[in-house]
Amino acid sequence: MKRFLAFVKKEFFHIFRDSRTLLILFGMPIAQILLFGYVITTDLKDVQIAIYDPTPSEVTQGLVHKLESSGYFIVDQYLSSPDEAESAFKTGDIREVIIFEAGLAEKLKRDGKGDIQLLIDASDPNMGNLINQYTRGTILKYQQQINEGPAVSGGIEVESRMMFNAGLDSVYMFVPGTMALILMLISAMMTSISIAREKEMGTMEVLLVSPLRPLQIILGKVTPYVALSFINAVTIIVLGNTVFGVPVKGSLLLLMAESLLFILLALSLGILISTVSKTQQVAMFISLFALMLPTILLSGFIFPIESMPDILQGLSLLMPPRWFITIIKNIMLKGAGMPFVWKETLILLAMILFFIIMSVKKFKIRLE
Amino acid sequence: MRTILYILRKEFTQIFRNKTMLPIIFVVPVVQLVVLVFAANMELKNIDMTVLDRDKSSTSQRLIAKFSGSPYYNVTFSEASIDKSADDLYADKSDMVLHIPQHFERDLHNYKQADLQVLINAINNTSASLMNGYTQSIVMDYNKDIMLEISQKQPQTTDQLEVESSFWFNPELNYKIYMLPGILVVLVTVIGMFLTAMNLVREKEIGTIEQINVTPIRKHHLLIGKLVPFWVIAMFELAFGLSIGYFFFDLPIEGSLVSLFGFGSIYLLVALGIGLFLSTITDNQQQVMFLAYFFMLTFILMSGIFTPADSMPEWAQTINYINPFYYFIRAIRMILLKGSAFIHVLPEALSLLTYALIIFTLALWRYRKTV
Hints:
The complex is a heterodimer.
Chain A: H1 2-17, H2 19-39, E1 47-52, H3 58-69, E2 73-78, H4 84-90, E3 96-100, H5 104-111, E4 113-121, H6 125-146, E5 155-163, H7 171-201, H8 203-209, H9 214-242, H10 252-276, H11 280-298, H12 310-316, H13 320-334, H14 338-367
Parallel strand pairs in A: 1-2, 1-3
Antiparallel strand pairs in A: 3-4
Chain B: H1 2-17, H2 21-26, H3 28-36, E1 47-53, H4 58-69, E2 73-77, H5 82-90, E3 96-100, H6 104-109, E4 113-121, H7 125-151, E5 160-168, H8 175-206, H9 208-214, H10 219-248, H11 257-280, H12 285-302, H13 314-319, H14 324-338, H15 346-370
Parallel strand pairs in B: 1-2, 1-3
Antiparallel strand pairs in B: 3-4
Helix pairs in contact in B: 1-10, 3-8, 4-7, 8-10, 8-11, 8-12, 8-14, 10-11, 11-14, 11-15
Protein name (chain B): Inner membrane transport permease YbhR
GO molecular function (chain B): ABC-type transporter activity
Domain ABC transmembrane type-2 (chain B): 128-370
């Protein structure tokens, strides 16, 4: 035990002596959570549009004004012919062209009917969909306004309540996701590379002939990183709460315990990676390359898992961050307690167990 | 020139001799490209909806039929209270709850306002607004029909604006052809940038850089030798990924391939140049890896690949001026999907070219200092 403690102390010193790495390790999550919290949003804002209006009138101008004051759209240019739409799209920034038919205002007056055509850049289908919905919504509202009140009394009124995120804020989605992403990658990279480094530099042999047992060596290597990652987790939660107003409705203690669990999982995955790779380069590529995109794409971080094809939904079951994201969203946003997250917790535990057993097995083989 | 060729030969041999790295370089990206392209989809399907029908009238049942008839909704019924049903939202068993109160039909027939309550799980704000949008439009539609029937007469003549939408460049709203180029750019860059960054640092860490430094090789020879092999590999992967997209995912190639590869080759100079620069300011692989990871992840998430760059705050769009991803993701999508010509992406290309010059100067300068 005394030997082990000495080893842990040595490892701590080793990390804390390298102030540059330390700065990266602590500074990175802070910078990232701040950046992503502000930047990653799926809201529509300031979409640049172009207008073709051959016969400007009060009606068309009123609608354009309505679109602009919604905050979703900015009129970037007026076209002098519908044929210019194509080049407006191709130069990049225009995402929608609104074409009013000639004499729209008069036709409305005369026949009670007028045509508006929307050309939408749907190369990004999500955006295309949203732009279409928002424009149509605005036109509908405008129409009711020029028709002076509802024509028929009564009718169905839908009262929607947005649960757990009344303001429809993007950060509610992204703070838990970013937390999972950062903890997963940093923790796994740290351990995987630190053991692979000993191997590459040849110092692993020295450690192996020391009286420390393999398990002790691994635990000794991991302990300082548990502390480091835990500080990172706390920082992220504090920033999410104070800067972005993401609530912690459930028990803080439970949240911390689950974060610790997830950190242990990521670290043990890192160890497994390091036991199978001979060089730092390989360890890094596996931990970074194999984890980054799948974590972003398959964990429900940005894209809803339910929309994925069945095979990918199955694959996402194997992604540790998926379970962690569910857990922290449930605790932070819904205020759920253990009864709602025990299943996910058990899955994380089982994964840790699996990674540890696998690494111990692999590690022993190397000893022979 | 001959020195460079020798260095190149040495670097290439070293890459191809490394049997563990080869599959990582060539197989992993392809697998990720093919698999992950299916994941990036914001479209909503299978909305699990719990219906509490307190009215049990023909009017309410017809409304429910509208929902169960739509491909978007999986309708289940509940007799529980609205609070009890909200528990389903907590437990993720349901995405939304529709409550049809008693006297729904009676109110409608008496020309009173009939209220429907909808509870939506809004943790994912995009899904929530889409769900709300679909629900509202189904109800509005139904509302129109039902009011017509009740009043038994033609609607009063009011001003009607007919809106017709056409979706350009991707009329089938196929998410894969939008995401594939983006994911490909990420993969190509990760490979290129990390290989470059690790390579030089590794020589430093294991001491072989000293040996190179005492040879008559000039600095820029060495840097070119360290850059070109990975540039070639990355270009190859770009071409390979595009072919996969073209043959298996119906990726359109509207614009010219020459402009695409022209742009790509400049872009890779920047991406690899950043890797090179990072390797000159760090002492070991661990540092360079964390630094590179930091820049990569930040650049990726800010580039507009997954979330629209136009919606970001002003200052973030300013930061994007130093984000190489931002330029290339934009350009590759414009050229492939919209058929934009090189002239349309010329400003981006010039920015990247300037960027490349700056980053190489920095790398050359830093390298001299550290030795």
